Amino acid sequence: MAMWIQAQQLQGDALHQMQALYGQHFPIEVRHYLAQWIESQLWDSVELDNPAEETKAKRLLDNLVAELQKKAQVQGGEDGFLLKIKLGHYASQLKSTYDRCPLELVRCIKHILQSEQRLVQEATNASSGSGSQAMDTLSQRHQQINQAFEELRLATQETENELRKLQQSQEYFIIQYQENMRIQAQLSSLSSLAPTERTQRETTLQSKRATVEAWLAREASTLQKYRLDLAEQHQKTLGLLRKQQTVILDEELIQWKRRQQLAGNGGPNEGGLDVLQSWCEKLADLIWQNRQQIRRCEHLTQQLPLPGPMVELLSKLNADITDIISALVTSTFIIEKQPPQVLKTQTKFAATVCLLVGGKLNVHMNPPQVKAVIVSEQQAKALLKNESTHSESSGEILNNNCVMEYHQATGTLSAHFRNMSLKRIKRSDRRGAESVTEEKFTVLFESQFSIGGNELVFHVKTLSLPVVVIVHGSQDNNATATVLWDNAFAEPGRVPFIVPEKVLWPQLCEALDMKYKAEMHSGRGLSDDNLVFLAQKAFSSSSNNSDDYRSMTISWAQFNRESLPGRNFTFWQWFDGVVELMKKHLKPHWNDGAILGFVNKQQAQDMLMSKPNGTFLLRFSDSEIGGITIAWPTDDYETLVWNLLPYTTKDFSIRSLADRISDLNHLLYLYPDRPKDEVFAKYYTPPLCMSKAVDGYVKPQIKQVVPEADGMLDPDGDFDLEDTMDVARHVEELLRRPMFSYTSLSSLSQYTGSTGYCDA
């Protein structure tokens, strides 16, 4: 209910925007009387694009109606009687409206709550003055846009008033012109009269005719001036419309698309489209009003032709306004939810496209169909050059046709492709060292519809972000690299899908940090020391100074085409392996600050040499993709620091990192000096109770040991083969027994688990 209390305190334009959210589709009274109940429901848990969620949405609808009926029943008194009837009516209305489409109710309420939250937040930032500079800049930009809309509204209202005056003046002119024609007819009929009477009447009529004709001449000149002035005003308004449209389409919408692209790399969510849609709808409304005014001017000119350049002027104005509305319609056909950028064949995927001005221009009255096809990079280039590529595609997408639906609550017209699947793909000839995971495609969405009673017909197209098609999961790693590089370094308005071959190292650092933070779901990203470590790896450098790398460039080949020196994997493959390992098994430990990770063997040795025995740290393996090792100091003056054989995802699927650290009693303090139980105890698996055997079996427990503790490493740090064979023989002997005793279980737990020593 807290949100509704704050929403009621909104003022001015924010209050009007909030009130505009409500209507017959969802009355504001329902929001008011059920505020607490509405805000306590888990609306976000319902996936709007998933038809299977309809049952959950239906349950929410039924509960809403029940709550409304309950609220109606408790109303009493004289005023309560009317409220009781009204709330009961709303309950029936909502039931009949959404009973067959309960997901639309959820969509409506989610939109309302998100919009209220945004309006309250904007108002809070404006009043407190504590918002960041970015928020201040955003508010100023929005304020400028709203001021420009107010200027356009006033200019359009002024031309409307002038047009009405012109129409009235022209109508009076036509009446006087008809009067002049009547006088002329009377003069022509005087020949049948007697000379005396004819002379008298002729003098009177000629005088009257001269007066009317003089007035008509003056008024014709005035009308022509009115027309020219009005045309000039329309030219100015069209200039303002163009300027405002440029700000919204070429700046605000492009920025939204850029945020959408960066969100593919883990950047902040691009945000909703409600503000952009409201701006585009205002533009559409103003453009259409001006277009209708220009059409009416054309009609007046045809009705009363006068000498002058008006026909040419109006023809140009009509062409200009048509160009403006065409640009608006074609630019606002956008992809709200992008298809996956790494697209596997024979796998279901979804996407959503919408027409931001579809509701305002009544396109939904005859809902258009949208078609999706996959095209190559070359075909995309040809499309942008307006070269004919009709019916050309580079593959076959199943379930690729969808009818656009109008959502009354939000005023959006959109098509939800829920069950598309790429059946096959046709690849082009690759260039040089380019692999299949570097080849980019795009999903083309196209549709055709008309507005204004078939006055204007539009064929609209929009391209998805670049898509890399794979046929096997093993290609995902390299495909993701292609997508990350493209999303990070693509420039607005580029030729599809050109990206720089090399970028500055700090630019790549920003992209890697964004990706890493998103995968960890944490604000703890890559520190300066982490990035220096990555730079050393990428450039095979030993410098520890971050300034040494600021002006260095890294090429795509260094990033994910050429293997690192002495390794059989690339820089990206190593980094992505770390990300996958952390994401699947070690995310909490990273967010707790327990994993240093980006430390090489020499650095680990330098850090641990001065620490007491029992101190250890966790670092990523240099030699194995997706590996992490434990390093700890020893009393051996030759070895100094041991590095356990790296753990991988396979190891952690058997036993967790916390449990493995718990098993190793010689590990006491996490670097620099934190007791290990203080850091990891909350993640330990509770010990199994030694319950009575069932069906002759007792569940064994896996426990990790390090051979060093039992003298199983020789002076060079290698396994002693005889000792290792003793372990194997002991395990084999235990396995021959028909049933484990508690003693044998305890003995076995000392030997079972991962063993190792070295990280290359």
From TrEMBL:
Family membership noted in the UniProt record: Belongs to the transcription factor STAT family.
Name this polypeptide is given: Signal transducer and activator of transcription
Domain of life: Eukaryota
SMART domains: SH2, STAT_int
Domain SH2: 590-687
Keyword Nucleus (UniProt): yes
An example molecular function term from Gene Ontology annotations: DNA binding
Chief location bin: cytoplasm
Swiss-Prot/TrEMBL keywords: Activator, Coiled coil, Cytoplasm, DNA-binding, Nucleus, Phosphoprotein, SH2 domain, Transcription, Transcription regulation
